[in-house]
Amino acid sequence: MEEKRRLVPAHMSINLQTLESIHYITSMLIEIPMLSENQHSMSRMVVSRQYRRLIELYDNKQAFVLAAEQSKDHIVFAARALNKSDWVTALKHVYSINAITRMPEFENGSL
User: Fold this and answer.
1) What is the DSSP secondary structure assignment for residue 22, as one 8-state letter?
2) Angle at CA of residue 41, ends 64 and 28, nearest 5°
3) For the whole prediction, is pTM greater than 0.90?
4) Does residue 88 surpass a pLDDT of 90?
5) What's the CA angle centered on 27, arms 102 and 38, to 5 degrees?
């Protein structure tokens, strides 16, 4: 009985893919200006180590880049476009994430 009270109903829980996507998007908005500002200096302030590791993984370990399949791929492509000051392409990549397009705010047109 006590365990049933602790359970969160399905309509009140947050999808983990949505939560991860929002985390990476906000990290991108904070990290990309810092990356471009401190590109040639040795002192790099890291806000999100997980996001920075994701960017470095895509930059260093992939020989060729395929089309974006997962939300992480879309966010990395958006970060690359934002780093080149192409915010329109970055916004298109963010809007192509399934977790974002399923949000009620996106469907109402308020995003």
Assistant:
1) H
2) 50
3) no
4) yes
5) 150
- If you ran DSSP here, which 8-state letter would residue 35 be given? H
H or E stretch covering 16: helix 16-37
Measure the CA–CA gap between 27 and 110, rounded to whole angstroms.
22
Give the tens place of pLDDT for each residue, 33-78. Answer: 887 777 666 556 777 888 888 888 877 766 566 666 788 888 989 9
* One-letter identity of residue 28: M
Domain definitions of the chain by residue range: 15-37+46-108
Identify residue 32 by its one-letter amino acid code: I
Q: Which two tokens stand for residue 84?
A: 């080149």
* Cβ contact 83:32 at 8 Å: yes
- Crossing angle of the two packed helices 49-61 and 16-37, in degrees rounded to 10: 80
Paired tokens of 56: 């470095």
